[in-house]
Amino acid sequence: MKTDLDALLTALYVHLDDDVIPSAKQARGPGRPRLLTDAELICVAVAQVLLRCDDERRWLRVAPARIGHLFPRLPGQSEYNRHLARLAPHMLTAIGWLARHTPTWHDNLRLMDGTPVPCGASRTTVERSGLGEMCGYGRDASHHRFYWGCKLVLVTTAEGTVTAFSLAHPKELDERKQALHLLHVQECAPGPCPIVCDKGFAGAGIEQAATDLGHVLIRPRRKDEPKDRARVFPGWLRQRIEAIIWTLKNQLGLERHNARTTEGLWARVCQRILALNAAIWHNWQIGAPIKRSLVAYDH
Question: What's the pTM?
């Protein structure tokens, strides 16, 4: 298990440093030189997620024993958090690079769904945290509950690689508008393709807008729609994206992100999605027969 993680981190670092964010092009800022390059710090962040260590303070205590043979110099907690938040754009670039270098990128099918990302459970947290610009009160229809946080919309391949995603305020931008904005601003596939989604994306406006972009939304028939519009819906594909979301929120710790600022929340979301894409990409590289994200990297 440890050997598999070492191989993943080594391969990821090589490609990040050579193709995505070369360290030779990084400008040095004022002050003391950093202990880790951007590529090294991203690999440390991926290891933190795959080893299921949600708390940064605890992670930096156990990291020397787990990955110290690969990264003998590790920063302190404040430096780690600060630089990780600054590296969110690089992590977003790495997520896209990994998605495009996974064979299923060329599949003519995508899955799309939204899920809440709770950020606070008390009034004190709502008033004192720095997440007020992005978070708000919303309703999680799947679990019949209200929450204070953000809405995360994902577009994935059938085997789990995230090709596009976005965070939004649950009241200022509803799920359909958020999904349509995501399809406009991010490339989720090499070309137009069918997108399997749920009933929450029903509506003539979003369906026509998606059609104008070349995408066809495939969803179940709503109860208030005539039966002559009945279509064959692949329910088993819906279960796949539900499993992807469960992996992100439970196995990869997105439900326990502990972010208190907008920059920190975005960085932690990118960190979890990057770890998921890296694990799936590495499974394809080594020819693993079952493309699962965390089985080989658990404790």
Answer: 0.90
Question: Helix or strand or coil: residue 189?
Answer: coil
For residue 215, give the amino acid letter.
H
Report strand pairing: 216-218 vs 194-196: parallel
Burial of 267 per CB tally in 10 Å (0-12, 13-18, 19+): buried
Can you spell out the DSSP letters for 16-81?
Answer: IIIIIS-GGGPPP-SSSPPSS-HHHHHHHHHHHHHTT---HHHHHHHHHHHHTTT------HHHHH
Model pLDDT, residue 148: 87
How many Å apart are CA 284 and CA 5, to the nearest integer? Answer: 14
């390059």: which residue's tokens? 37
Q: Which residue has the higher pLDDT, 239 or 92?
A: 92
Angle of CA points 54, 175, 104, to nearest 5° = 65
The residue with greater pLDDT, 231 or 216, is 216
Q: Locate tokens 């008033």: which residue?
A: 127
Expressed in angstroms, the distance from the first to the final Cα of the chain is 8
Q: Between helices 77-86 and 262-286, what is the axis angle to 10°?
A: 80
Q: How confident is the model at residue 245 (pLDDT cuts 50, 70, 90)?
A: very high
